[in-house]
Amino acid sequence: MLESTHAPYSARLKRVFRRAKKRLSRALLLALAALSTLSSPAQTSPPQTAPPPAPEHKISPEQADELFRSVDEILKFASTETALPEREKVKRKLVSRDEVVAYLQKHMDEDEDSQRFRRSEVVLKKFGLIPRDFDLRPFLIGLLREQIAGYYDPATKTVNMLDWLDAEQQKPVLAHELTHALQDQSFDLQKWMKGTEKDLITVESPTSDDFDRDEAAEARQAMVEGQATVTLIDYELEPAGMSMAGSPQIVEAMRETMLAGTPDSVQYQKAPLFLKEALTFPYRYGLGFTGDVIAKRGKAGLNDLFKNPPTTTRQIMEPDTFLSGEKLPAMPVPDFKRLFKDYDIVDIGGFGEFDTAMLVGQLATPVIAQKIYPHWRGGYYYAVRPKAKATAPLGLLYVSRWSSPEKATEFAAIYAKGLTKRYQRAVEVPHAVKVPHEGAALVSTGEILSGGHSWTTEEGPVLIEMQGDFVVIAESLDHEDRLPEAVLGSTLPAGTK
Questions:
Q1: What is the pTM of this model?
Q2: 116 or 386: whose pLDDT is higher?
């Protein structure tokens, strides 16, 4: 949904996975055609052998008038639905597809987050979540051109309607977008979202609290999208005398449809799985989160979340952790400047439960992934390159915490198996393995991996080391064997090294 604060793609692309999720999913209208009646995608790059495409359908002046008149009626519905008051008239505008794409391109070129977008892309590729030869920017433009179904822009306080979709197709979209207008009128979405956005690369000495807060914008976006999607569903169900609260099966069906897309969503169908999941996260999981909050606190309880919002993707994916007030222990954080004094920083950020779910989901079966990622209890990454070596492989430090040492070893084994998918030559170094402290067994069975292991690859060494419920991973870094102690030294039992 194109309801970003100052650019349609920038709000969520803030940290590696989150950066991609933020900009891409915020820019996506109506959860990637979650309902097939809500979009009319056009193939943007037809085969060269195909005849020239016919002129795009445009709605008539009479249909445009009907659409403009429907805004006030649907705004009243959304206000009743959400208990958010109408504080002012919402401006409205009819735009063409080319105007929307030009708007997107302009902000993607000029937005202050564009450099971060490029940084995040290289780290996504290092983790193997998008192919090394994948060009994210033109793909995103093509995807948005295909999927847009209407949007609210809080910068101009305007709901933008599209001149190529019939009025009846756009009305459910308006129910969603006008919910954002009401949220904006009561809570100032730009200010509310901007308060969570902080590029950790600018922080002198990031702390565990900084990493904990690094998912806040993503969690907030899922919250506002969840509430707006509930309004959309209830708008569609009202003529039949139904509501989402009385038809919980609709939620799961809609979440599945969001991820699958529609057969005519050509560009979306070509997207890597990570992008599909990331793009739909605020809608799919936001809908589930708001559904649970409604069940416990009623619809009015959603507005209370603007004062006490969720802060992590774990809370969005597992609403009980939010409703119960779960607090996770602080992560150990080293002195990055000293540790990487011979490197230039490329990117840094928290690594949340959704990020972990996506990573494990690429490396293991869905059944295994679903058993592992809920045991995540904290994580972050630090990406660097050797000074004055811009073409050197990206170096990566990735630290994660788990619910138990057993789950840490299971995750480590999954990550280790995935090295052969991410590198052309990943060879374990048998004699480079060390047992970190007395009583730490070294086991490599394919199901668990404990102790410390090293590999050689075409991009340099890889180290995976387990210490209790922590896993420390270093890739393409010099002196990688020193990193676990630098990161976890303060967490080890007294007298151990």
A1: 0.83
A2: 386
